[in-house]
Design goal:
By secondary structure, the protein is α/β, with parallel strands linked by helices. Helices cover about 45% and strands about 10% of the residues. Helix 7 packs across helix 8. Bound molecules: adenosine-3'-5'-diphosphate. This is Sulfotransferase domain-containing protein.
């Protein structure tokens, strides 16, 4: 169902007369909304926020290593879901392990992943303003990645059917564009650093440099080389600590680390599908400044 945030007056967003859109969640959401909004937030928390399939895990691993003295051994020894829990995963399916408690009980500094839209973050987030990385990714890449991800869990339709439901904003956390734009419009919040998947693909060292600076960390050239190695697609694909298993058994479809490309959609989508997604972005994003976020 669609859920619209009720309390959003504290959000320092740059959109005049902003009223958040309703976002797509499971029915579980309403039962836990209050608990979520009241959740504690600490100043030494580290948050990673995104729309699903935007490269969240990649950023989490980068941030965790940078904040933990590049301890790759510890990173490989413990699953990312334990080091960097997904705040609201319990809201996606009642069958999934309930996650608020994990986050609550984590030793500080806590590392927290979330796909919540701006309007649904815990109220305390806006008072405390913990350091946060937001990542966005091209809509066509997100669409393809989201299809394969959903197919691995529950989805039985074709790519075409999935894309049609995606542009109708029927997938979890949709609408996608509003999700990205709302985070972009928090650009004056200096606790939030914005990065993109494409930027990380193009030249990872420059993103790593920004993230190190943001957290006040500095590493030698040789140490950073090991970090780039650790964060490469091949290394992450072969690292069980950053891959996910399907809770319902072995995944039939694609692995979590599927392709890791910035322009794979050019081969994976038909011209008609590309056209449909481009028209959708044009319609949803009339503002030319905002349009740049989706190129
Ligand atoms: P693809 O399905 O296009 O391969 P999220 O973590 O938000 O769910 O995003 C998953 C996407 O990020 C997947 O995209 C995955 O392959 C990609 N990804 C993860 N680690 C990566 C890396 N080290 N390099 C490039 N892409 C990576």
């Amino acid at each position: 169902g669609k859920v619209r945030a009720k309390q959003y007056k504290d959000v320092p967003i740059k959109i005049p007369n902003w009223v958040p859109q309703a976002h797509c969640f499971t029915t579980e959401f309403k039962r836990h909304e209050k608990e979520l909004l009241e959740a504690e937030v600490y100043p030494d928390d580290v948050w990673v926020l995104s729309y699903p399939k935007s490269g969240t895990t990649w950023v989490q691993e980068m941030v965790w290593c940078i904040c933990n003295d590049l301890n790759f051994e510890a990173a490989r020894a413990t699953k990312i879901s334990a080091r960097f829990p997904f705040l609201e995963i319990g809201l996606q399916s009642a069958a999934l392990h309930f996650s608020f408690k994990d986050v609550k009980d984590m030793p500080r500094p806590r590392f927290i992943k979330s796909h919540l839209p701006v309007s649904m973050l815990p109220k305390r987030y806006w008072e405390v303003k913990p350091k946060t990385i937001h990542i966005r990714r091209n809509p066509k890449s997100v669409a393809v990645s989201y299809f394969y991800h959903s197919q691995g869990i529950h989805y039985r339709g074709s790519m075409d059917t999935f894309l049609r439901s995606f542009v109708r904003e029927h997938q979890f956390y949709s609408p996608y564009h509003a999700h990205v734009i709302e985070y972009h419009e928090l650009r004056d919040c200096d606790n939030i650093l914005h990065v993109s998947f494409e930027e990380m693909k193009r030249y990872l060292p420059s993103v790593v440099r920004k993230v190190c600076q943001f957290f006040g960390k500095s590493y030698s050239k040789a140490e950073l080389e090991l970090l780039y190695q650790h964060l490469s697609f091949k290394s992450m694909r072969d690292n069980p600590a950053v891959n996910f298993e399907n809770p319902k058994g072995p995944t039939k479809g694609e692995p979590f680390m599927r392709k890791g490309e910035a322009d794979g959609w050019k081969k994976e989508l038909t011209p008609e599908q590309i056209h449909m997604l481009d028209e959708w972005t044009k319609e949803r994003v009339p503002n030319p400044e905002h349009r740049k976020l989706f190129e």
